[in-house]
Each structure stands twice: as C-alpha cells, then as structure tokens.
Amino acid sequence: MDRIRTILAATDFSAHAELATQRAGLLARDLDAGLELIHVHTGLGPGPIWSDPGGGVLIDESRIVENLRERLETVREALQRKYSITAHAIIQTGTVHRRVHERARDVQADLVVIGATGAGAIARRLFGSRAQTLVRTAQRPVLVVRQPVADAYRRVLVATDFSDDAERAARLGMTLAPEAAFTFLTTLDLPAHHSEPVMGLDETERAARLQAAREHARKQLRALADKHGHEASAILVRDGRAADELPDIAREIDAELLCIGAHGKSRLEAGLLGSTSLHAVAEAPCDVLVAPHRAEDT
C-alpha cells in the first residue's frame, strides 16, 4: 500500500469545505499523517471607488486577510482538539489551483482533499468552477469529499480499466480504508448494434464474443484483487460506458468511496482528467479518490 505521510486540505469555510477538513482530520489521525490546511484568497481585484461595497471607502484588504487567517486558525485548532493531531495552516493569495498545487508540492503532500457540492456540481461553493481545474491539473491524488464524516470508510468501489493510474487509485484506496469491504469493477463499452456489420458476426457469434470478453474481464479483476490481498472481495463486470455506469453502481452497493484513475490506457487526454473520471467526480453519490498519472515534481 502507498504510505500517506502528509495531507493537504483546502477550505473556503463553507459547509462543503467543512466536510473536507473533517475527513482530512480523520484520515490524518487514522494514518498518523501530518495535516496541512490552506485557504486561497483570490483578492478583491481592481474596481472604482464608487462601486466599492464599503460605501465609497476603499476596503483595507489586509484586514480581510487577517480575518481569514483568524478563521483558518479556528478551523486548525478545532481539528487538533477533535482528532488529537498536529495541523498547520496557511493563507495564500492568487489563483486557487496554482496555489494549492504549489503548496502540495512544497509540503510534499501525498493527498489533496477538497469538498464537493451536490451531484453534478463539483465544489461550486468551495472554488466555483476552479475546482474542476484543480482536479484536472493535479499531479497528486485528490480526494473529493461529498458525504458527511462519521467514521472510516466501510465500503469502497474500485473502478478499473487495468491501467497504471487505476491500479494506483486502488492501492491508495486500500491505504485510506484498510478495513473496508472492497468491490472491484470494470465495464465493457461494447457497441450494441454496430459490431455485426463491421466484424461480420451473426447474433450467436457476437453473443459468444461478448461472453468471452466478460469472462476475461472477470479473470483480470480477480487477479487484481488477489494481487492486493483482497481474495474475498466482490467483482463486477458491467456492459456499458463507465461514465454512465459508475454513479448507478456506487448507489447500488452503497459505496462510501469510489477510487478511479485519472487517465486510461490510451492517454488520449494526457494532461487532463479523463471524461470518465470527471463524470464520476461530478455525479457519484459518494466521495471520489482520483489518482493522476504519476509525474516528477517540478
């Protein structure tokens, strides 16, 4: 399993960010990891005096930053008390995803934790649309927290296409939830109506090919589970597009955490979060752990 030594949690003090910091605190305690908190102040930006919300008097931005610093310190102290951990906190100004990535690099974070809003809207209250940019451009694993925090994860869904990134996500999930029940899943995105003319197959031959593909996928899943010491874990092979199937399957098994790689084997979207992962982050009813393609720190 991959060791988690340092966790970086980002917050804007919203209710959704509170879920993220609570999960980060719990993980820091259970994994004996260091916890770093960050709030990124994006600045007030230029504007005419008469449009200033202070009623025509320029706002002292330093006072705003100091207020944010006090709020972040309150969060830090509360987490330390609740989870009996040591946490550090920093306020930075600038573009959210750049500052978070820079801080993750500086502290050598093994995991970045952010909050999420309801289904279909990633952290709109946390960073607005910037959250999607943060996840897409991450070079470190990102945990997107959606569910209230009660205890350690108990049910984990590992979605894989057998790529390196997907296997890394599985290993990280096992690190975050060593006592959880795991389900290993892969989907077969096979055309339902167009394979016969192209391949010259009749319905019987096509059905036989599909069944053979399913059996091969089951063997691959079992080998993956066995490799990581999960011989008794459930395995699922479903027909359909992963982006469409993942949210429904997560609901079906009542998963609390979904683990997925950022890129598939093709690398067609290298440097960006793959469409399946992005859809999972947006639509899954549970927390989502995204493992990006491993890259050297810069």
Report the sheet-strand fraction: 15-25%
CATH-derived topology of the largest domain: Rossmann fold
Low-confidence stretches: 47-51, 118-129, 192-196, 265-273
Shape: elongated
Q: Strands of the biggest beta sheet: in what spatial order?
A: 3-2-1-4-5-10-9-6-7-8
Sheet with the most strands? 10 strands, mixed
Tally of contiguous helical segments: 9
Distance between the termini: 24 Å
Mean pLDDT reading: 82
Label the structural class.
Answer: alpha/beta
Radius of gyration from CA coordinates: 22 Å
Annotation, overall tally of beta strands: 10
Q: Report the order of strands and helices.
A: EHEHEHEHEEHEHHEHEHE
CATH superfamily of the largest domain: HUPs
What is the helical fraction, as a range of percent? 40-55%
How many structural units, i.e. domains? 2
Top CATH class of the largest domain? Alpha Beta
Give the CATH architecture of the largest domain.
3-Layer(aba) Sandwich
Protein name: Nucleotide-binding universal stress UspA family protein
Keywords: Coiled coil
Pfam families: Usp (PF00582)
Organism: Rehaibacterium terrae
Q: Quick gist of this model?
A:
By secondary structure, the chain is of the alpha/beta class. The chain has two domains: 146 residues, 3-Layer(aba) Sandwich (Rossmann fold); 147 residues, HUPs (Rossmann fold, 3-Layer(aba) Sandwich). 41% of the residues lie in helices and 19% in strands.
